[in-house]
Amino acid sequence: MEVIKGDCLTHQQFVKQLRPDRNLGLELVRATEAAAITARNFIGRGDKNAADGAAVDAMRSFLATVDMQGIVVIGEGEKDNAPMLFNGELVGSGQGPMCDIAVDPIDGTSLAAAGRQNALSVIAVTDRGAMLDASSVYYMNKLVAGKAGVGLLDIRLPIAENIRLLAKATNKDVSEIVVACLDRPRHEKLIEEIRAAGASTRLLLDGDVAGGIQAAMESSRIDICVGIGGSPEGIVTTCAIKALGGFIQGTLSPRDEQEAEKALAKGLKLDYVYEADEMVNSNNTLFVATGITDGSMLSGVRRKGSIIETDSIILRSVTGTVRRIKSEYQLDKFIK
Questions:
Q1: pTM for the full model?
Q2: Coil, strand or helix: which one is 282?
Q3: Are strands 224-230 and 178-182 parallel, antiparallel or unpaired?
Q4: Other C-beta atoms within 10 Å of 277: how many?
Q5: Which residues contact 219 (CB under 8 A, 6 or more apart)?
């Protein structure tokens, strides 16, 4: 199924929007599917490093077949910590478009290791030089919502005010607003403020990428995703939000003075609100994800006899499309 954003189009506009061109997402989804299928063997086994390592190897192998000149701007490890896909690693066949790549073979490794919901395999892609490299700061405070939040919400406002603004813009009662955030001790006060404002919460065990994307999807029950999570996840989420036409802001949240100094040395700004166009300075983005375990956005990998089923999503900003892809692999052929 493919969903095309926008108002009613003329026939000419519709044809132009669907002009034949190359969609890297349809090739990249094979890499997230491979990582998810490989990670399936480690679900619920308690060894997140083994799961991540296997998923990395599978993703790297499939990325090598894609005609692109990709450089990993956001990876999981440094070069000395292989087999992780490290920052600066070149991926792809070496031919085709020059791209910035953000990868997370397992977003929610602890979720997969424990057999919990919402573990994903994720790739985000945009033009070369467009992604903000915020890897020197581990955490970022984020505020994410749908179209209605654009030009309206502001991370500098109290969360209660943002809730009231969005409720008014979407013609909802405050009590109908659902706010997602990671279930962490650092968010205790934030959770109290959300509930005191009259809204309800959806507390995430891990992996706030899915929470942010759902906040921007009109079909989702989540209206806002807020709080401190990973900086890399913030950039990945921004690629998806640009495809959905939603709202995102972020502020870097260094853990200590040493990390703050490292960030400043890299040219990053502290005590500063990064807008979407500053986190990803391009309107040509792709976001690809495959479910590893079942979740509210995607179903997990399932085996039915000799068949492995996967559930994936591709978000593309150029055409504003949301593609949902269900694939079936014959297990014996996949292993070969």
A1: 0.88
A2: coil
A3: parallel
A4: 12
A5: none
